[in-house]
Design brief:
Elements (H helix, E strand, L loop, with lengths): L5 H10 L16 E5 L10 H6 L3 E5 L11 H4 L13 H6 L6 E8 H5 L1 E2 L5 H10 L6 E2 L8 E3 H14 L2 E2 L4 E2 L1 E5 L3 H14 L8 E4 L6 H8 L8 E4 L12 E6 L6 H8 L19 E5 L3 H7 L12 H15 L8 H19 L6 H4 L2 H7 L10 H11 L10 H19 L4 H14 L6 H4 L2 H6 L3 H6 L2 H11 L14 E3 L5 E8 L10 H11 L4 H7 L6 H14 L3 H8 L4 H9 L3 H7 L1 H4 L6 H17 L18 H4 L4 H16 L4
Parallel strand pairs: 1-2, 3-13, 6-14, 9-11, 9-12, 10-11, 12-13
Antiparallel strand pairs: 3-15, 4-5, 7-8
């Protein structure tokens, strides 16, 4: 049995040898691979590990993802939201393996609405004027705890925690508590305010916990011990996941969380059982969550949250943007000596990077067909869209990082973005404004000789004339001249403000816990259930009752089926190319009254014989059940059991045509 981290295994596959100096970890080395916390880090380059080994994969996670670029289910070749086995939080609580929680959700005026000068007292207005520039009259709620820290807001949260938080030692001592802070400065200020409010604890009761702080490991070790202080850990991303402290009784969400995965991982910190927490034989029965940033309210509305997309590396982005330029320079308009030479220079650089890929590495060996195809100059003679996709997907992630100044590389990427946009003839106002801003900042570094040498160009790029006339070669001149000067600019550091305006609690609600973390149903079941449960929603009602639909109604169904219940990819995987309205209509059917109204003239036509009347009723019942009718089924059983339509309505073809017209009318509502 082998235990390993992802990076260690990546290296071990290539480097570890057995006693016979043979590669130890061949593709068939393992029969079973168990991946703990499989919602994390198994994508992109680490996914190569699982592609390399020919073994059964068993993934364990409390929060699987189904994002487009981070899909836990797809790694294990499962349908979205249909794991092989699921044991939900609610079940674990009911079975006595975890404890439940309840929430105290509080809306505070400044966090919700921001700070407005006109709402302050005269004394506070004076402080506001001393703190901020004359043109500042409003501070957004987002600014709080980012770069503005208000004593009264934080004091209110801490006092509520100390008053309402669950306690131990007969109610004399706050139970172990995690406060999830927005950033390091926020964490430090929370601890500072706590020590100011409660000096009797001598600075030991609450401690900040974040990377880079002195003795953070020791603080965490002490926090995990029931009898040791601190009792409150103010965490910035260090205690959100991966810790198991049964004594935790209170969680404080003092920052917004929009990742569903992270949100439920954070809640999980308080779910552990703890025997004798309140005394001998008195066990932990639950925990309390204080939410000051509307997180629970957000996730009630947005069940799947907003997961962050996977970021490409700077090296990968630089590679891809140049591939894009190379492809665009294939256009006939650019077949001049100067453009051809520039394209060849870009190709030369790309080839050098591809040839720099270490083919002895296992993840490179898995992509050899692409590496060997594109490390030849003739592969770039005429790139296709498929070539570009192959380069971006299979080659770019393998390109070794360029050993260069990161700031210079970022400026390269900025200028290449502008070049690519100009070739495509699309606007690039934001990147261009960033170049102008960079040039303006460089004018304040004139005492540096290398900056002084580029004085003319630095002033030139700040003019409208430059941007009106510049071509790709002018942009290249700017890129090459300024890339090495970026390091001389001052690093950006926003000013921090401290205030003490009187905040107020607008609303407080106490709610029981909610335990439906993952919607473990197949996409088809979710679609069916939603549509059947919401038949009285206006758009579904219109469809069921044969009312005309609009483009906005189509967008309603697209939002429900392609965003809220799953993705368009899920839809196509489950239902193929079935038109959206036709599928919905098939599930919800047609209201009997609406169907009878359309066919009423035939249902009451006493001139029809018994077989013709039976045919009409078959049509009506079929449309009630399926919402529409493909006329091809009229040639199938049971419609054709008395002969085809022409034979059945012999002598009454006008009636048959009107019946077909009624069918077309109902079908027509599905073609918006």
């Amino acid at each position: 049995m082998v235990f390993s981290t992802y990076p260690t295994m990546m290296n071990a596959i290539d480097d570890v040898k057995n006693k016979r100096s043979e590669k130890l970890f061949t593709s068939g080395h393992f029969d079973l691979i168990i991946i703990d916390e499989s919602h994390r880090s198994i994508y992109k380059k680490y996914q190569d590990i699982f592609n390399y080994f020919d073994a059964i994969l068993l993934g364990l996670t409390a929060t699987p993802k189904n994002d487009l670029d981070k899909n836990t289910y797809s790694i294990f070749e499962l349908e979205n939201n249909v794991p092989t086995y699921a044991y939900e939080l609610g079940e674990a609580i009911e079975d006595g393996y975890l404890v439940p929680y309840h929430t105290i959700e509080t809306k505070m005026k400044f966090l919700e609405e921001g700070i407005h000068y006109d709402d302050l007292t005269d004394e506070e207005k004076e402080q506001f004027e001393e703190t901020f520039d004359d043109d500042v009259k409003d501070i957004s709620g987002e600014a709080l705890n980012s770069f503005l820290f208000n004593d009264n807001t934080i004091d209110t949260v801490l006092q509520e925690l100390m008053t309402k938080g669950l306690k131990v030692e007969g109610g004399d001592k706050l139970g172990k508590t995690i406060i999830f802070a927005k950033n390091k400065k926020h964490a430090d200020f929370i601890v500072k305010r706590f020590n100011s409010l409660y000096p009797e604890y001598h600075g030991n009761f609450a401690k900040p916990v974040y990377t880079g702080i002195n003795y953070v490991e020791s603080t965490m070790d002490d926090f995990e011990v029931k009898t040791k202080l601190p009792q409150i850990a103010v965490s910035v991303d260090m205690l959100d996941t991966g810790i198991d402290i049964p004594e935790i009784l209170n969680l404080v969400f003092f920052k917004k969380v929009r990742s569903k995965t992270k949100f439920w991982q954070m809640i999980g910190r308080g779910t552990r059982l703890c025997e004798d927490l309140y005394g001998v034989g008195i066990d932990k029965e639950g925990f309390r969550i204080f939410d000051y940033c509307g997180n629970f309210e957000f996730f009630r509305t947005n069940k799947n949250g907003k997961e962050a997309k996977m970021m490409k590396s700077l090296t990968e982005n630089l590679f891809n943007i140049r591939i894009g330029i190379i492809k665009e320079l294939q256009i006939m308009d650019y077949q001049t000596e100067e453009y051809i030479e520039h394209r060849n220079t870009l190709i030369e650089g790309i080839l050098k990077e591809i040839k720099g890929i270490d083919e002895s590495k296992f993840n490179a060996r898995m992509k050899l067909q692409f590496i060997h195809k594109f490390n030849q100059e003739d592969a770039f003679e005429s790139l296709s869209d498929a070539d570009v996709r192959d380069l971006e997907e299979h080659v770019a992630p393998l390109v070794p990082s360029i050993d260069d100044d990161e700031l210079a590389k970022r400026f390269d990427y900025l200028m290449y973005t502008i070049e690519y946009a100009d070739i495509k003839r699309v606007p690039a106002s934001k990147p261009k404004n960033r170049v102008v801003s960079t040039a303006e900042k460089l004018t304040f570094k004139g005492t540096i000789e290398k900056v002084k040498q580029q004085e003319e160009l630095i002033y030139k790029v700040q003019t409208n004339e430059y941007w009106e006339k510049a071509d790709i070669f002018d942009h290249e001149e700017v890129r090459e001249a300024l890339r090495d000067l970026i390091k001389y600019l001052d690093s950006k550091s926003g000013e921090i403000y401290y205030t003490n305006f009187t905040d107020e609690i607008m609303e407080t609600k106490e709610n029981p816990g909610e335990y439906s973390v993952n919607d473990m149903q197949s996409y088809r079941k979710k679609v069916n259930k939603y549509l059947m449960d919401h038949q009285n929603d206006m758009v579904i009602y219109k469809l069921r009752n044969n009312k005309p639909l609009t483009e906005d109604d189509i967008k309603y169904f697209e939002k429900i089926l392609w965003q809220e219940l799953g993705t368009r990819e899920d839809y196509e995987k489950e239902f193929g190319d079935e038109p959206l309205l036709k599928l919905v209509s098939k599930i919800v059917g047609l209201d009997p009254q609406a169907a009878n109204e359309v066919f009423s003239e035939f249902l009451s036509d006493e001139s029809l014989n018994i077989n013709q009347m039976e045919f009409v009723k078959l049509v009506v019942n079929y449309m009630i059940k399926n919402g529409s009718l493909d006329k091809r089924v009229l040639n199938e059983h049971p419609f054709n059991k008395r002969g085809n339509v022409m034979h059945l309505f012999d002598g009454k073809l006008d009636v048959a045509k009107r019946i077909i017209g009624a069918i077309d009318q109902i079908n027509g509502r599905l073609s918006v």
